[in-house]
UniProtKB/TrEMBL annotation:
Its cofactor is Zn(2+). It comes from Roseibium aggregatum (strain ATCC 25650 / DSM 13394 / JCM 20685 / NBRC 16684 / NCIMB 2208 / IAM 12614 / B1). Pfam families: BKACE. Keywords: Metal-binding, Transferase, Zinc. This is Class III aminotransferase.
Amino acid sequence: MAALFAPPPLPLIMAAPNGARRTKSDHPCLPMTISETVAAAKACFHAGAGALHAHVRDPSGAHVLDAGLYRELLSEMRVAVPQMQVQITTEAVGKYTPEQQRELVYNVQPALVSVAVREMVPDGGENQAKAFYEWAFSHECAVQHIVYSADDLDRFFNLAAAGTLTGDSHQLLFVLGRYAAGQESAPEDLVPFLEKLAERGGGQVLDWAVCAFGHRETDCLVEAVRRGGKTRIGFENGLWNRSGERAKDNADRVRDLVSALTEHSLMPA
């Protein structure tokens, strides 16, 4: 029953193979088409990822919130790798409004979606956002709330306390390095998020993950798992393995993380 819905557990590793901005000029193996994204997701699944964080692109290669393209991707994923969860994104990239973001989710009706708190709930938009979160809850759509800073996380807790968010079981994504110099993150960037989580997280079931920009992506994600979190990895955030060498492809990034987690005895059997 919808009244009993709680988001399913996040996988330990979610693959984010393309994102909204990078192109093949950044890496020739960055997927741009649906077929390339499905192939990358399948390879990441076999490397150890349990879910796909999916972006779709238009024919020019631009990130779009296109319900038809997302439905096509979801259909292809059900055939190619049905064991893999698929999370769509509502990322605004500076051009999509909260209304357009919500409309995408209403039209696709995905099982999983990521939503940036600062994009979906601007000041004054709480009532519209509340209706969206109630809809997602009633349709058993798991929303992962993206926060870019401890202030964003504080806003998340304020929205939860005000009843804008539905339920008391939530998924979170802490983004490290997005607004840092050169978009380079470090493991210590996780500390402000964890301090805010300890301060305000009591009384709720919070399933959190981390993504990290730059060359130290793997180090940051190992620290996240060590501290009780999950991970999102791939060319959306970083192109480099922990050796400093550029990864061959997205599956190579997953293998690098699996190897690091295994070395630290953090990888489940």
